[in-house]
Amino acid sequence: MTLVSEVITAAALARLRHAVTAAAGSAGLTEGALEDFVLAVHELVTNVVRHGGGAGELLLRQDGEVLTCQVTDRGPGLDDVAIRLPAPEEAGHRGLWLAQRLSGALVIDSSPGGVTASVTTRITPRRPTAQGR
Amino acid sequence: MTVEQETTWQWRCDIEPDRTVVRLLGEIDMAGADRLRDVLCKAIAQAARVDVDLAQLTFIDSAVINTLVTAHRHAADLDVRFTLVNLTGQVRRVLAVTGILHTLGEMPSPPDPSA
Predict the structure, then answer these.
(1) A75, B2, B68, B81: which could join A52 in a potential S-S bond, CB 3.0 to 4.6 Å?
(2) CA A7, CA A13: separation in Å to the nearest integer?
(3) At B82, is the pLDDT very low, low, confident or very high (cuts 50, 70, 90)?
């Protein structure tokens, strides 16, 4: 089931983020898990704006308890995917690391015609009377 | 005191005798990172101690993390104490997971001995 299907542009960053938050929240993702998934998606979207030719498409799908967000661009493709966390005092390049760390899975498929990146998370069913841990 | 509006966020700067407090409100992402850098650099240029109050900040991304790290380094170069305070929710978790909370967070960082 498709939850969100939108065109990515630099001007739409916040709007896309809010659309993904609302849809993933309605699908049952909550609190930290929701925030983490939203940031993972946002990092893929900003990568499109910065490195992927500035425009692309975002597709958020739900298959049962699994949410997948796929982000595609028609940019030059990635030469080298370095998913490494810089030292705390070092500037730059935590985006893909965050996307990978915060989502259950990050898959990147790069070709000369563009990049397709997707992040996946699982919706944990809500416990109606969950108190404490 | 200055108040400025941005699309998804705003900032407020309180200049106190011994420190400047920059309060950030809302959601800041890549689109606001340059503006944030300017706000922080201006505060760093005018005070010996800058506390960045994040109590009402609800979202940051890697571009903002980058800006905070750069501002902290800039402050250290000028012997300005630069500290992030009142982190909550998404902001706290993202800075913790990237290891930055330890360097820039509530415990004021001492001047860099190698500087």
Answers:
(1) A75
(2) 10
(3) very high
pLDDT in tens, A106-121: 999 988 888 999 999 9
CB contact under 8 A, A93 and B62: yes
Check CB contact under 8 Å for B100 and A35: no
Q: Is B30 helix (H, G, I), strand (E, B) or coil?
A: helix
Q: Does A22 touch chain B (CB under 8 A)?
A: no
Contacts of A20 (CB under 8 A, 6+ apart): A4, A37, A38, A41, A42, A58, A60, A69
What six digits make up the tokens of A29? 């993702």
CB-based contact, B65 to chain A, within 8 Å: yes
Q: Identify the bridge partners of residue A109 per DSSP, sorted by sequence position.
A: A116
Q: What is the secondary structure of A100-122 as a DSSP string?
A: HHHSSEEEEEEETTEEEEEEEEE
CA–CA dist B109, B104 (Å, integer): 7
The average pLDDT across A16-31 equals 96
CA gap A133, B26 in Å, rounded: 30
Domains within chain B, CATH numbers bracketed: 2-104 (3.30.750.24)
Architecture of domain A2-122: 2-Layer Sandwich (3.30)
Complex ipTM tops 0.90: no
Q: Does A115 touch chain B (CB under 8 A)?
A: no
3-state SS assignment for residue A83: coil
Please indicate whether, in this complex, the C-beta atoms of B104 and A88 are within 8 angstroms of each other: yes
